[in-house]
Amino acid sequence: SLADMGETLGENGINMEGLCGFPLNDEALIHILVEEETTARYVLEAAGFQVRAVREVLVIDIGNIVGKPGTGGNLARKLGNAGVNIDLIYFAENNKLVIGVDNLEKATSALK
């Protein structure tokens, strides 16, 4: 369960900085943002969770643009114009926006 996952990480000193989840057939697919991805994977698998992948994502500080209309569209347009596809997006703690993309290098360059 989500509670078990959170407790497992917490008991091992790992903070979930971001979390996104949705149902997938009879399961739940969860993406968590942590700094200690290797340790998180180890403790979750040891507790019986299936970790399907570990991946790098863009983490953008949006503190200075929160509440400005059109900002999200502008960001998505920059990525689209660079030929980058977004496959994951959610907000995380401390005014962070987490974006999963198909080409991290191109995405980083497009947002400079």
Task: Write a concise keyword list for the protein shown above.
2 domains; alpha+beta; 4 helices; two-stranded antiparallel sheet; single chain; 112 residues; 5 strands
The rounded distance between the terminal residues' Cα atoms is 39 Å
What's the number of structural domains?
A: 2
Which spans of ≥5 residues are poorly predicted at pLDDT below 50? none
Oligomer: single chain
Mean pLDDT, all residues: 90
Major sheet strand order: 3-5-4
- Rg over CA atoms, rounded to whole Å, is 15 Å
Q: What is the overall silhouette?
A: elongated
Organism: marine sediment metagenome
Protein name: ACT domain-containing protein
Note down, in words, how this protein is organized.
The chain has 112 residues and is of the alpha+beta class. It folds into two domains: 2-46, no CATH class; 58-110, no CATH class. The chain is built from four helices and five strands. The strands form two sheets. A three-stranded antiparallel beta sheet has the order 3-5-4, covered by helices on one side. A two-stranded antiparallel sheet has the order 1-2. The longest helix has 11 residues, at 71-81. The chain is elongated, with a radius of gyration of 15 Å.
Furnish the topology, listing elements before pairings.
Layout: H1 2-11, E1 18-24, E2 27-33, H2 37-46, E3 58-61, H3 71-81, E4 86-92, E5 96-101, H4 104-110
Antiparallel strand pairs: 1-2, 3-5, 4-5
